[in-house]
Amino acid sequence: MAAHPDAMVAIRNLRLDARTEQGPAHILRGIDLDFARGRIIGVVGESGSGKSTLVSCLLQLLPNNLDRIEGEILFEGTDLLKLPPAEMNDWRGRKIAMIFQDPMTALNPLFTVGTHLRDILRRRFPQLSRQEIRERSLAMLNKVGISDAPTRLDAYPHQLSGGMRQRIVIAMALLVEPDLLLADEPTTALDATVEAQIVELLDRLRQDFSGSIVFISHHLGLVAELCDDLCVMYGGAIVETGPVAEVLARPRHPYTRALLDCEIEDGQEGRLATIPGEVPSATWTMDACIFASRCVHAAEVCRQGPPALLPAGEGRKAACKRSFEVLP
Amino acid sequence: MSETAHYVASRLATTVLIVLGAMLLLFALSALVPGDPATALLGPAATPEYAKRFIAEMGLDQPWYQRLFTFLGNILLGNLGTDVLSGRPVTRVIADVLPYTFILTFTAIGLAVAIGVPLGCYAATHRGSVLDHVFAFVSVAFIAIPAFVIAIFLLLIFAIWLNWLPVLGAGEESSWLDQAKRLILPTIALSVGWIGFIARLVRSSMLETMGENFIRLSRAYGLPSRLVTYKYALKNACIPTLAVLGMGVGRLLGGAVLIEIVFARPGLGRLMFDAISTRNFPVLQGAVLVVVLIFVLTNLLVDISYAAIDPRIRRQGSR
Amino acid sequence: MTGFIAIRRTFGRIVSTLGGAVGTVIIVVVVGAAILAPLIVTHDPDALDILNRFSGPSAAHWLGTDHLGRDLYSRLVFGAQVAMLVALIAISSALVLGTLLGILAATLSTRWERVILIVFDIISSFPSLVLALAVVAVFGPSTALVTAIVAVTLVPHFGRVARAQMLTLRNAPFMEAERLLGTSATRIVLSHVLPNIAGPLVVLASIDIPVVITIEAGLSFIGLGVRPPLASWGTLIYDGYAYLSDSNIPVIVASAALAVATLGFTLFGEALRDAVDPRLDRGGH
């Protein structure tokens, strides 16, 4: 089952339901995914595909309207879903760290950058002295490309630009030396030039990062630039996984193909390309291929039960019954 | 830090303007006293000679702009006029009773904060629990019921029926223990509404803050929930609480007037009440001005401490 | 018609909460007593019966009598009438004046806006009760004066809210369109502005009702508001308090009536606020 035998994190059949006004909603519909050390996996999908919820599950910071969660999240053999809350909290900010989407709201406006860094460092390494904490903070600020680090340490979030704040958030994540780094659309809220800088920074930082990085994005181009592996999500399910270069060169799922086409058109014509149709409602019970309603290749077989995520080449999997028929 | 200086300066300017306006209003009121001012102020029993001397002394025969000028000038010099009855300077008369009002209002605020903030935090962190609902109802009741009604009930129960505490007066001449005992019921009566108010405010601001991304981030880093609640969230929740505290000091001072009368305590309220019944206008005017000053200065203080808590405010200048 | 339906829906939301339902019941009782006062009292509220002073509750005097032998129940009912009248007049005049000033502040030049705001600040810098003391000292106590003072102290409340609403409204596209069409300012205010800012102002008005009742009662309690022999909850407490050593029934009855009424109006006001703007979660849930 495991794509990588040395998987650090193995997610098995993860299902999450939430209560909504429309009734029970299936936010995650059985996710199987592995993260290996030293690799960056890009998780791509439209909004509502469940990619952010997946991250919340890894941290066990679940939405209030959670109804039911089942499956396994094996982190080096420990099932996070079975950990008591206190122990789970111990994993956060120690083994797992997170970079948030919107740097403008991720930092508390009433505390200086220094306080933010100090509190998480003190929690992670209680034995550090005041001096060591300061030194580590300064060194990390330099590392994430913040000049004039001593001054920035005393700055309040509102005195910094968006890009600068995101560097601070990244610095926080790296300071705790996690095994698993979750980056939830870390560049979405930034403008294009800053986005490029942050991606470059992440690319540089991964050199001395031994853990695994999960990079959530809705932007295939970014993922192609930064990641080793790709996971495409749609409507709460994984439709395709595999090494980035191969998946993008030769998608094995019509949805990946469509996403790729969008991206290409987007770049060339400068107009917004979209896939016709809408993502099926989360309350829908999956009794067919989830993409069938929007798929140009949909046939009768696609509407007879959901497809399984099956091997589709070296290290690759796809959930499409007609994969080899329609995507040669 | 010049941002801060600028902010404080602009708040100060507004405060001065408000105080000046309040003084003008007071002057206009005194100028509006219907009928002959001497009769109005001294009462019909005053002899014509005394009335004449009084008019000259108070400068009531001068044109209004000159009187306004003298009025403002005197206030700036710290001269609030003379007590018509005792002949003592109004400033002295006020200084004698001011400590009692101060002690009462500030112990009341202190008590309200000491009880209201933890209650609000508890309700916010245990949202939807039975106690949360109980607190919510109790808070509304506390806020709604007038402080002087609570004072009367407390007096009835603890002083008259149970006879646990001495109540009337502040015990000016007696030991500090007796004075403290006499402070208990008035303080409770005055702070009850505030406890409800603060508890609710802290609850709603905490809930709002708890949903913020930066709190999610603190949790994602496994920071202990006590640190997240009491350091990160509470500081954010303090801002609206402080604002309301500032605005509410006025209501508190108004409430203190009635409480002082119920418990027959000396203080600004009692002083104003007595001044009205004896038509001692200079004393009343002085006392009202002092109340306004306290109120406005507290608000200035709140605005400044606002800036100390929230670095973003320093940039904005005024509200 | 849509307005009527909206009101009915809001009301439905109010009574569906426990606080709102309790508040509504209390309000119906108090307002009903105020309106029907002459019909439901058992005695002339001012009729003296010195021989029967401080009589406890009985079939003849449901709540007993006060220090002059007047029927407490009847005085209480007329007290409700005074409280409701003062609240109604004070709040509606403050509402009209405040809204007018608020709209003016938002539409006139910046200089006038500043002047109006400073005036609001000055008024608010007087605790309402203290301002009332200053004014009463000059003009002498009277019910009309109390009403007027309370109205003045409430003007800034409404003014600030009206101004804020107006400011957000000023840049709305339909306002621009109306201006381009050459619709007169008065017409715009009547047809667009008032309906749009009415919600928050009505909520504010209902929340201010208990405040007004409290001020009136407080002033009357220290003898500077409603003057005896007119019955007001404040004067009832005042009379009772003076004769506390003879009987504590009058004080208890009148204070309880005041407390229940303010509680009822507060509960209703908050339920109304939550029903109009569900985002503000303060009460319970």
From TrEMBL, chain B:
<dbReference type="InterPro" id="IPR045621">
    <property type="entry name" value="BPD_transp_1_N"/>
</dbReference>
<dbReference type="Pfam" id="PF00528">
    <property type="entry name" value="BPD_transp_1"/>
</dbReference>
<dbReference type="InterPro" id="IPR035906">
    <property type="entry name" value="MetI-like_sf"/>
</dbReference>
<keyword id="KW-0472">Membrane</keyword>
<dbReference type="InterPro" id="IPR000515">
    <property type="entry name" value="MetI-like"/>
</dbReference>
<keyword id="KW-0812">Transmembrane</keyword>
<feature type="transmembrane region" description="Helical">
    <location>
        <begin position="241"/>
        <end position="263"/>
    </location>
</feature>
<comment type="similarity">
    <text>Belongs to the binding-protein-dependent transport system permease family.</text>
</comment>
<feature type="transmembrane region" description="Helical">
    <location>
        <begin position="283"/>
        <end position="309"/>
    </location>
</feature>
<keyword id="KW-1003">Cell membrane</keyword>
<keyword id="KW-1133">Transmembrane helix</keyword>
<feature type="domain" description="ABC transmembrane type-1">
    <location>
        <begin position="98"/>
        <end position="302"/>
    </location>
</feature>
<dbReference type="Pfam" id="PF19300">
    <property type="entry name" value="BPD_transp_1_N"/>
</dbReference>
<feature type="transmembrane region" description="Helical">
    <location>
        <begin position="134"/>
        <end position="163"/>
    </location>
</feature>
<protein>
    <submittedName>
        <fullName>ABC transporter permease</fullName>
    </submittedName>
</protein>
<feature type="transmembrane region" description="Helical">
    <location>
        <begin position="12"/>
        <end position="33"/>
    </location>
</feature>
<feature type="transmembrane region" description="Helical">
    <location>
        <begin position="97"/>
        <end position="122"/>
    </location>
</feature>
<keyword id="KW-0813">Transport</keyword>
<feature type="transmembrane region" description="Helical">
    <location>
        <begin position="183"/>
        <end position="202"/>
    </location>
</feature>
